Amino acid sequence: MRMRKKKYLDERLAACEKVSLGWLQDYASEMRGENPPKILDTIEIFGNNNPVHLEIGCGKGQFADEIARRNPDINFIAVEQNANVIVSAMERTLKNGTPNLRYLMGMAEYLEKMFPPKSVEKIYLNFSCPFPKGTYAKHRLTHKVFLDIYKNILVDDGVIVQKTDNRMLYEFSLDSFSENGFMIRNVTLDLHNSKIEGNIITEYEEKFSSQGFPIYYVEAVNKKWGEE
């Protein structure tokens, strides 16, 4: 069931202009000549040339805002396709006054239209939709379709960090990373009982771990096999 549009959503989105980078261009609107794509100039946006990290599917922004506040020397851009959801994230960031975080509305398929090649150092995929039916595999954010996009915008040795509670998606991702030239590291089937440090809890992570579900974690490095 499609989520009902929140009351005063347009007004709330407009009030978040300070932290919003607008909508990702999609192919249909491009064909119609609407909102021509503009490559992001992060130096202009943030006023510095700090490294850029990207979260895809930021939800209500708990993770994005917290990691940005912990890392003031990194610029963060968070992407979410649901306007009803991203408005809460943007309002959170405005309230907290987090200066190094901005938001993009839209779908990950169109990231190449706004990010220059080799411009992102790290991508976070936190509790992405698993699309359990095999016929929907191409919609998984670790499918080859998306990995090819990430390869283009990631710097050499750039990293994808994935967290999920879904074993099927996790195993699919491990295979997909390996088959598409990523080097896998820090693989764990139980993040909260691992030696991995600095984890920031997301909304979904809080919910699933409280119910006793293990959190699966992996890092995939944008590097060809055989490279040291």
Q: Any guess at the CATH architecture of the largest domain?
A: 3-Layer(aba) Sandwich
> Class by helix and strand content?
alpha/beta
The overall number of domains is: 2
Spans of at least 5 consecutive residues whose pLDDT stays below 50 are none
Rounded mean pLDDT score: 91
Kindly state the number of beta strands. Answer: 8
Spatial gap, N to C terminus: 48 Å
Task: Tell me about this structure.
There is one protein chain. By secondary structure, the chain is of the alpha/beta class. The protein has two domains: 1-56 and 72-116, Vaccinia Virus protein VP39 (Rossmann fold); 122-228, 3-Layer(aba) Sandwich (Rossmann fold). Helix content is 31%, strand content 22%. It is built from eight helices and eight strands; from the N terminus they run H-E-H-H-E-H-E-H-E-E-H-E-H-E-H-E. The chain has helices spanning 9-15, 27-31, 42-46, 62-70, 83-96, 144-153, 167-179, 203-210; strands at residues 20-23, 52-56, 75-80, 101-105, 120-126, 154-164, 183-188, 216-221. An eight-stranded mixed β-sheet has the order 1-4-3-2-5-6-8-7, sandwiched between helices. Helix 4 (62-70) links the parallel strand 2 (52-56) and strand 3. The longest helix is centred in the middle third of the chain and has 14 residues, at 83-96. The mean pLDDT is 91.
